[in-house]
Amino acid sequence: MQFSKSTDYALHALLHLAHSKLHQNIGIKELSAALGVSESYLSKIMSKLRQDGIVRAVPGVNGGYELARPAEQITFLEVIQVIEGRQQLFECSNLGSQQHRLLAEDGAADSQRKSECLVKRVMDGAEQHLYQYLREHTIQSVLDEVFKQSNHAVNKK
Fold it and tell me: For a pLDDT cut of 90, what percent of the chain falls above it?
């Protein structure tokens, strides 16, 4: 499993917006320069984030983008699902195979278990752990960690 570059850029753009409290909003030109990505590519990503209510577009000459809500309310999972989609990560494609039927007959007395994908339960569990981890991490939690590390480094000197 691999997330797209769009997810990477979306998360970094949100970190940049959250960290830049001096500016109420940041223009696409400045944001694309900071991230090293083309304005047109980043505009498409920001449009998705805007449609989902994660960022707000500020019109006008000095317009740009700003977070639509506090950084501590924007989870990594939410951003990933906006960019990548909300489909399940694993789909069992082996239910009709002879191997599946043999294992299901050996291991299950009831008919419900015979029709259950043997691998899906494990994969669904892994997916839930991943989702929980990504739900626990917010844009703000990453910034807090950066500030904590930089303060720790300053205090060591």
Answer: 60
